[in-house]
Here is the input.
Amino acid sequence: MPELPEVETVRLGIERWCLNSTINDVQVLHHRATNPRSAAPLETVAGASIVKISRRGKFLWFELDRPHALVAHLGMSGQFRIQPSEAMDEKHLRARLSLNENQELRFIDQRTFGWLALSGFGGGVPDLVAAIALDIFDPHFDRAAIVKKFRKRGSEIKRALLDQNLMSGVGNIYADESLWRAKIHPQSRCDALSPGKIDNLLTSIHSVMSKALVEGGTSFDSLYINVNGESGYFAHSLEAYGRENEPCTRCATQIRRIAFGGRSSHFCPRCQKL
Here is the structure.
């Protein structure tokens, strides 16, 4: 699933190509492309201008010259692509926004877990995103408050990192990478970690995702690409995620993988002792 660095890379690409464009027409080609909570059919944004593209965690939205925002979540495999209008339709094309200058913004989603929706928007954050916690790059992110919230949890730290109502934007990849960098076992209990340990983990999250942003995110296959079709190359910088049985770059111990709530966690059993 695309995480914060991938979604931010997509946002930057959309901003470059679509800012101040007019949405001349909208075609929805699959019923699951529209979130059931959409305040109105997507087609009703025809004629609106895109004045800003924003993001919180894994959500992004188009601010329009109208009272609604167009919100998007990429789900497991959602992509936005900029294409000339005459380009052949992609196999898993779910919706298209026809823009000015014979250009289209296309929403493609193989697994159909991603969605678009119109949301009430009075400035700030759309209603559909309001319950999502701030991410670590938000200027209003309060590290001290987040440390306290983590320490009140009785769950494993990996589970808490994936809770988008606590801190948004972190998924399986960057949780594993940040825990490895902070030398914290994924099954460590939040309430057993010191404030300093959790603060160091937040520093690791910021550092890991900043590096991923520079490198365009993590691409393992064609399911994550930027709006111009390019893949990110942060996968070459991964230290834990996806490296089962490979040597830890710090101590040469083999990276292990354990099942975790229907997912996998990758860690070094020597550097990240429980």
Summary: The chain has two domains: 4-129, 143-267.
